[in-house]
Amino acid sequence: MKMSNLNKDTLFLIFEELRDDSKSLFSCLMVNRIWCETVVPVLWRNPWSYNGINYRNKSYLFIILANYLFDDIKKFITEQGIYLNSVVVKSLLFDYLSFCRSINVDNLNSIFSIGSSLAYNQFFMQQEFYSLFMRKCPELKYFDMRSIQHQIFYFPEAKVRLESLCELKCDTYVNSSYFYGLSRFCQCIQKLVIFNIEDSIPNHGIVRLIEVQKNLKHFEWKDNFYNYDNFEDPYEEILLALEKKAESLNYLSIIFQDVEDYEHVLIQRILPKFYKLRVLFISASLWFTDQQLNQLKMQVYHELEILYMDENELNFYSNIIENSGGRLKKILFRPYDIISSEIEDYHDFDENSLNFIRKVYENCPSIEYLSILISPTKENFSELEKLLKICQNLKSLLIVILDNYDDTHEDFLGYGNELLEILIRSAPINFKEIRFGREFKFSLKSLEKFLENWRGRRALSLFTLDSIFTSDDYTKLINKYKDDKVIKDFNYCIYGINYYIDDLIT
């Protein structure tokens, strides 16, 4: 059967899998009428939030929205010099807004700016759109309200629409009173993402919004600045409100830029209560005492799948891994942060590194993405190879060696050759990328031998911090194996390992 002849039910299931891929969905519109009729409801469920689309240039979206405005409003905006294409007067092929379940304020603002450059006109059109949307939309599921200026919860139909809201993105720049208004109706939010803006103060409205949620599962807090001075602490009330949601939370991600000592203590105290977490991501420069590590060692995270916490000891990760429930798929950290902040006794680190590797292969059969920091000893390399043989789902490895400052260039070449030999012998069948720390060096000959031995396997992505790979000889070799489909990508990262770990964390 040809793809173009599939029935609507089958097509709908396929398009559901592509719901976040706007490029593919737009292509499907052009196949035939059946495909078009089936894909439009999927494409328009959340049409304002596709990555890679410049909404400020999409005049056809403005035309569609303008078609929904009442005749008297059309007359008004025409008199104001607002752009209306002649297509506006024609009937739409679909009732697009009947499929829509989302509002994205920034992107809608960009669309309405196409009609007029005047702030008043834009504000007026936005206001009319939100009023219409609240009447027409069956339910509101997704709401990105950053930069909002309209008190939409005052519209008569707002209560019914907002009661169904399950995903909210906002920032702390919005006044607390707005969140108090939302908290009257929005009590079933499952995913809440908050961007903390520079020079903000504690937003008590956000705290209230968290407190009234009945089934909050996913929480993210992201500081969008690096330093702030002379204003009240924005974190404490948020953390205390989250503590009350430990029974439902399964995704916790907090990025704090400037945390006080007492907040460290608060996070360390409440963290063990989130025993249902699937994702634990904390960037707040936390350090755990021996007593707290022992407490975490007794804490069981049966559901945990993704673990990231910056600037901690390897023992911290080992303790959580030991009682993780065997479901961990990502264990990620920035290895050089551990080196710069922790390492004092080389012998102790060697034991900690071995312990970490063993905890991974003993407790993480499903691991797919792994950061690892090892000592350049025979025993460490041996245990690493054992990990590769046992953890057959492993796809990506970020690896850094702790050097003892006496290592020479020849030592680094030896580390590189040893690692390549291990990969040839023992890399899992699904292995697709490796990210090297700066301690790994590869001669042109050894790299070519490795790539030749990799033929017939899955094409490999390689990431390195060594600028030697930008030289002509290495570039020629790499391009040869790209052409042969042995290498998928080869990236020299000038910004350092912290930069190229970020895409693994999300």
Give the SSE layout:
Elements: H1 8-17, H2 22-28, H3 33-43, H4 59-67, H5 71-79, E1 102-104, H6 105-112, H7 119-136, E2 142-144, H8 158-163, E3 167-171, H9 176-183, E4 191-196, H10 204-211, E5 218-223, H11 236-243, E6 251-255, H12 261-270, E7 279-283, H13 290-298, E8 306-309, H14 314-322, E9 330-332, H15 335-342, H16 346-363, E10 369-374, H17 378-390, E11 396-401, H18 409-426, E12 433-436, H19 444-453, E13 460-464, H20 472-483, E14 487-492, H21 497-505
Parallel strand pairs: 1-2, 2-3, 3-4, 4-5, 5-6, 6-7, 7-8, 8-9, 9-10, 10-11, 11-12, 12-13, 13-14
Helix pairs in contact: 1-3, 2-3, 9-10, 10-11, 11-12, 13-14, 14-16, 16-17, 17-18, 18-19, 19-20
- Structural class call reads alpha/beta
Shape: globular
Q: Point out poorly predicted stretches.
A: none
Q: N- to C-terminal separation?
A: 38 Å
How confident is the prediction overall: mean pLDDT? Answer: 82
Strand order of the largest sheet: 1-2-3-4-5-6-7-8-9-10-11-12-13-14
- CATH fold name of one domain, please? Leucine-rich repeat, LRR (right-handed beta-alpha superhelix)
Instruction: Estimate the strand proportion.
Output: 5-15%
Annotation, overall tally of beta strands: 14
Describe this entry's structure for a reader.
This protein has 506 residues and is α/β, with parallel strands linked by helices. Among the domains are: 1-43; 325-506, Leucine-rich repeat, LRR (right-handed beta-alpha superhelix) (Alpha-Beta Horseshoe), CATH 3.80.10. The protein is built from 21 helices and 14 strands. The chain has helices spanning 8-17, 22-28, 33-43, 59-67, 71-79, 105-112, 119-136, 158-163, 176-183, 204-211, 236-243, 261-270, 290-298, 314-322, 335-342, 346-363, 378-390, 409-426, 444-453, 472-483, 497-505; strands spanning 102-104, 142-144, 167-171, 191-196, 218-223, 251-255, 279-283, 306-309, 330-332, 369-374, 396-401, 433-436, 460-464, 487-492. Strands 1-2-3-4-5-6-7-8-9-10-11-12-13-14 form a 14-stranded parallel beta sheet. α11 packs parallel to α12, α13 (290-298) runs parallel beside α14 and α14 (314-322) packs parallel to α16. The longest helix has 18 residues, at 119-136. It is globular, with a radius of gyration of 27 Å. The two termini are 38 Å apart.
